[in-house]
């Protein structure tokens, strides 16, 4: 099949269009702006809605409004912009409006920098805003993933009536790789809850207010049952040479490819290393971690472009079964040579 | 073919990123696995730009490396920054019009050409990057020159005929230079 | 027997939760009458604010959404862009629209967003218990201006109708009051005109309605209506500020 060379951000935008996404609301921020620019070029030609909002707050609320009509809609931003969107994401999660939110992530805290990072891991996987809720979080590792996950994101969003976040390091948005363009899909989900005017039916109301305590608790219990269902069904991870691994690297996103290269290198030197790449960051693929431990992994090394946020999830999965160490950088993607050095040092120390 | 990683580095505006994109396109057209990773952000705005191209017969695991096999260097700060990072016995291509010092390492295959002078002589100062690329491909065969020429129109799709013609002319001037001097 | 007055279809048969003497109820009814009379109920999508109007969806018999504080114009924008044939309006108070939602309302107007805004100005935060609003008059006592609003500390009340009328994208901007039957009738006419503006695709329309809050003003309902006329109208003059032909 013919492959086309595309930038990650553009592949993601094109994937959204192919998934039937017909509205984009956003505010410019580096390194995500190519997504907005792509939509601004494309939508006038295919009858979609592109609107540059006055703020991230407005953009996410425009998503709220557009998603409430049953349409597939998206917004994209980066670190500080995603923080501003959190109010709206909390409302969207409670109102159960399907949509896709993209974080082409950069380093924080505060304004931080615009270089690649995975520092928004906690924000993405713990809900991010106020209240008991989750968004599903997908972490692409290639430009092909950027297109595929955009399409998958809309399916999951409609299937579970949940906001889906795609989180990718800045570099993944900027880099180019050849990809296979996927066939467009026609969204096939009935949305009887949508507010479209009440012709021929009783009025629909979309609200997140539940003043009576019983009602509020009921609502939270319902949401939890939905999250439990997603946890049971949708955990995804890629494993590489973990069957006999004594040392398992855990890395997501572009970082996982660097880690994979490092695993191949240290294997040549006789080190029994493997890799687990979480694809869904929420729900976290804890069973894959446990399985590797059961297969004999003594040590897990979390590799992140932050200061070790995913370590918590690996430890929770292991529940004391094996040890977890961490190596990471910020604003820079560690290269395979660097990871090989770290792994060799650990292997020597541990006698692996 | 072994996986090859090539770094292009210079000032922003020298066409560093587009050189890398050209090579990426050409290698893809020749049936290779490719990736193109630009530096972006503060580094770029500070005046230097670079991109890393990976070409392989196999699926590319890491599109990132600290130690590329080859580097195409368009200015002095880039030589200072990247010389020591090139893999042992790697290839270093230098724009000698703008780099006023000799490389310090003696294990590298060093290829020099005065790109800006050549471009001025052609009456196409903006074609400097294509001259360099032509010479580089003629020498290293990372992608066959004939293949690259074959895909010129595809790679420059959407550009005017005049732009394509000028780029091709510059590219061929580089090829010619490599044949005569390298 | 001839029916001279009946509950509009656009309102459920349900008792309002609003305080005695509060004019939200009158305004709800006027909006419902306009929508009925213009045959729009099945095409209408309304967006409620955070404030006393937060539960307005309990009363209106058509599709409704509840917005985050101040964001109703952004939500209405998202809806209207997807469903341009529907009638889309927001219902917002002065804290929601003129304070926390200032950016959203100004930009909805600047874009000429083809939505209608019903803006309830009663110079105070009602739902949270009587705090100072951006529209609170100089000298007015609230729980957060216990010695009266002082301009050197808290600046001056904002005149939203005048402010938004300066935006090219605003097609119809009007300020009315509901402190007596004659003005209720004028309000109804203004709302119809605003709706018509949207139906004709002319752009942003807003009716600012001077309203009462007897509970938090600490007044009887009758005194509250008098205050509208004597204190509010002199600072917030009634009339049309923008009519795009």
From TrEMBL, chain A:
Domain Pyruvate:ferredoxin oxidoreductase core, by residue range, is 245-331
Q: Which UniProt keywords apply?
A: Oxidoreductase
In this protein, which residues make up the domain named Pyruvate flavodoxin/ferredoxin oxidoreductase pyrimidine binding?
14-185
Write down what this protein is called. Answer: 2-oxoglutarate ferredoxin oxidoreductase subunit alpha
Has the keyword Oxidoreductase been applied to this entry?
yes
Q: Name one GO molecular function term.
A: oxidoreductase activity
Protein origin, superkingdom: Bacteria
Does Nucleotide-binding count among this protein's keywords? no
Q: Which Pfam families match?
A: PFOR_II, POR_N
InterPro entries given for it? Answer: 2-oxoacid_oxidoreductase, PFOR_II, Pyrv_Fd/Flavodoxin_OxRdtase_N, THDP-binding, Transketo_C/PFOR_II
TrEMBL record, chain B:
Q: Which UniProt keywords apply?
A: Oxidoreductase
Q: Which InterPro entries match?
A: 2-oxoglutarate_synth_KorC, Pyrv/ketoisovalerate_OxRed_cat, Pyrv_flavodox_OxRed_cen
State whether keyword Transcription applies. no
- MF-aspect GO terms: oxidoreductase activity, acting on the aldehyde or oxo group of donors
Q: Which residues form the Pyruvate/ketoisovalerate oxidoreductase catalytic domain?
A: 12-176
Protein's recorded name: 2-oxoglutarate ferredoxin oxidoreductase subunit gamma
Species of origin reads: Thermosyntropha lipolytica DSM 11003
TrEMBL record, chain C:
Name of the protein in its database record: 2-oxoglutarate ferredoxin oxidoreductase subunit beta
GO BP field: cellular respiration
Q: Which InterPro entries match?
A: 2-oxoacid:Fd_oxidoreductase (IPR051457), THDP-binding (IPR029061), TPP_enzyme_TPP-bd (IPR011766)
Work out whether the entry's keyword set contains Cell membrane.
no
Keywords attached to this entry: Oxidoreductase
Q: PANTHER family under this entry?
A: 2-OXOGLUTARATE OXIDOREDUCTASE SUBUNIT KORB-RELATED, SUBUNIT OF PYRUVATE:FLAVODOXIN OXIDOREDUCTASE
Domain Thiamine pyrophosphate enzyme TPP-binding stretches: 60-209
| Gene3D superfamilies in alphabetical order | 3.40.50.970
Q: What is the lineage of its organism?
A: Bacteria, Bacillati, Bacillota, Clostridia, Eubacteriales
Instruction: Identify the SUPFAM superfamilies for this entry.
Output: Thiamin diphosphate-binding fold (THDP-binding) (SSF52518)
The organism named in the record is Thermosyntropha lipolytica DSM 11003
GO molecular function terms noted in the UniProt entry: oxidoreductase activity, acting on the aldehyde or oxo group of donors, iron-sulfur protein as acceptor; thiamine pyrophosphate binding
Please give the Pfam families that the UniProt record associates with this protein: TPP_enzyme_C (PF02775)
């Amino acid at each position: 099949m013919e492959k086309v060379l595309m930038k990650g951000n553009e592949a993601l935008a094109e994937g959204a269009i192919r998934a039937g996404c017909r509205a984009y609301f956003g505010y410019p921020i580096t390194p995500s702006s190519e997504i907005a620019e792509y939509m601004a070029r494309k939508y006038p030609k295919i009858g979609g809605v592109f609107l540059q909002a006055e703020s991230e707050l407005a953009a996410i609320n425009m998503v709220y409004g557009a998603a409430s009509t049953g349409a597939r809609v998206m917004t994209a931003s980066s670190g500080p912009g995603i923080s501003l969107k959190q109010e709206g994401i909390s409302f969207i999660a409670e109102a159960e409006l399907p949509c896709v939110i993209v974080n082409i992530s950069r380093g924080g805290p505060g304004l931080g920098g615009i270089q690649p990072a995975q520092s928004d891991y906690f924000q993405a996987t713990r809900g991010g805003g106020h209240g008991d809720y989750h968004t599903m979080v997908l972490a692409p590792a290639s430009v092909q993933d950027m297109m595929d996950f955009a399409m998958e994101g809309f399916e999951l969003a409609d299937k579970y009536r949940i906001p889906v976040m795609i989180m990718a390091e800045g570099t993944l948005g900027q880099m180019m790789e050849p990809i296979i363009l996927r066939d467009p899909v026609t969204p096939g989900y009935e949305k009887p809850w949508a507010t479209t005017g009440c012709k021929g039916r009783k009025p629909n109301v979309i609200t997140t207010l539940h003043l009576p305590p019983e009602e509020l608790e009921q609502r939270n219990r319902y949401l939890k049952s939905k999250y439990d269902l997603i946890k049971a069904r949708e955990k995804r991870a890629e494993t590489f040479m973990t069957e006999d691994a004594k040392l398992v690297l855990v890395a997501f996103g572009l970082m996982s490819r660097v880690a994979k290269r490092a695993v191949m290198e240290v294997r040549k030197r006789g080190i029994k290393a493997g890799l687990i790449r979480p694809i869904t960051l929420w729900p976290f693929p804890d069973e894959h971690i446990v399985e590797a431990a059961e297969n004999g992994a003594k040590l897990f090394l979390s590799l992140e472009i932050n200061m070790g946020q995913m370590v918590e999830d690996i430890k929770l999965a292991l529940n004391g079964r094996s040890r977890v160490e961490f190596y990471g950088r910020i604003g820079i993607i560690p290269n395979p040579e660097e990871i090989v050095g770290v792994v060799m040092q650990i292997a020597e120390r541990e006698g692996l | 073919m072994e996986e090859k990683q090539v770094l292009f580095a210079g000032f922003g505006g020298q066409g560093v990123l587009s050189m890398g994109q050209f090579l990426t396109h050409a290698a893809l057209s020749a049936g290779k696995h490719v990736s193109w990773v630009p530096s972006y952000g503060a580094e770029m705005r500070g005046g230097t730009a670079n991109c890393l191209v990976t070409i392989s017969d196999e699926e590319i695991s890491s599109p990132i490396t600290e130690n590329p096999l080859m580097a195409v260097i368009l200015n002095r700060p880039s030589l200072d920054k990247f010389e020591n990072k090139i893999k042992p016995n790697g290839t270093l291509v230098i724009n000698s019009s703008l780099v006023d010092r000799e490389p310090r390492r003696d294990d590298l295959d060093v290829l020099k050409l005065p790109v800006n002078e050549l471009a001025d002589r052609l009456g196409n100062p903006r074609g400097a990057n294509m001259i360099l690329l032509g010479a580089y491909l003629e020498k290293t065969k990372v992608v066959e020159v004939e293949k690259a020429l074959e895909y010129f129109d595809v790679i420059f799709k959407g550009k005017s005929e005049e732009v394509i013609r000028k780029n091709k002319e510059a590219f061929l001037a580089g090829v010619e230079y490599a044949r005569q001097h390298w | 027997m001839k029916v001279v007055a009946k509950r509009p279809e656009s309102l459920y048969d349900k008792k309002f939760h609003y305080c005695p003497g509060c004019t939200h109820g009158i305004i709800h009814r006027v909006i419902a009458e306009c929508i009925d009379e213009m045959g729009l109920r099945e095409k209408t999508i309304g967006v409620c604010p955070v404030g006393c109007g937060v539960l307005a969806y309990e009363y209106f018999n058509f599709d409704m959404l509840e917005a985050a504080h101040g964001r109703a114009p952004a939500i209405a924008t998202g809806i209207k862009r997807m469903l341009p044939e529907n009638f889309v309006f927001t219902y917002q108070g002065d804290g929601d629209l003129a304070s926390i939602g200032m950016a959203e309302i100004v930009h909805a107007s600047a874009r000429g967003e083809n939505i209608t805004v019903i803006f309830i100005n009663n110079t105070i935060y009602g739902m949270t218990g009587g705090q100072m609003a951006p529209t609170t008059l100089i000298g007015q006592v609230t729980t957060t201006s216990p010695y009266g609003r002082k301009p050197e500390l808290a600046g001056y009340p904002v005149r939203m109708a005048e402010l938004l009328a300066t935006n090219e994208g605003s097609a119809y901007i009007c300020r009315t009051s509901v402190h007596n039957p004659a003005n209720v009738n004028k309000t109804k006419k203004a709302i119809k005109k605003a709706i018509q503006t949207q139906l004709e695709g002319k752009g942003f329309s807003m009716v600012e309605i001077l309203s009462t809050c007897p509970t938090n003003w600490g007044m009887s309902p009758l005194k509250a209506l008098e205050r509208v006329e004597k204190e509010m109208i002199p600072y917030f003059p009634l009339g049309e500020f923008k009519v795009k032909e």
